[in-house]
Amino acid sequence: MQSTHTLTGLLAVGFLVAGLLMTGCTSSPAIYDEANNGQTVSLAKDSTVTIRLKENPTTGYSWQVNVTDGLSIISDQYIPDKVPAGMVGSGGTHTWTLQPQGAGTFTFRAIYMQPWMNVTGSEDTYTLTLVAQ
Fold first, then answer.
1. 50: domain CATH number?
2. How many CB atoms within 10 Å of residue 20?
3. How far apart are CA 128 and CA 50, in angstroms?
4. Pair 55, 64: CB distance under 8 Å
5. What pLDDT shows up at residue 90?
6. Range of the domain at 37
């Protein structure tokens, strides 16, 4: 009788651990930021994700974005930080909401630069790969 209870307990723990591991591999937050740079995330093909990156266009720098075919930018918004009245040169957050147009692998790439300058290779970059299923 004890071995049946032990086996049942072990099976329950095993299923719990397997569920947690699967959740960590396939499920992810819908909002991504600098901490997620270079990651690959899975999502349902009909869902959306949001990327938020710090930006300071008062310096002339902004994120120059490129997405692969089949990935739509459905929202593109810059929100300045709240600062005291009269303060100049402050930054904010640029937010993009993305939606895959079906199943597949898609990439959001961004390079932080002054758009009139040539790319030198020393710019900050951001990449997030989305696997829609």
1. 2.60.40.2020
2. 10
3. 11
4. no
5. 86
6. 30-132
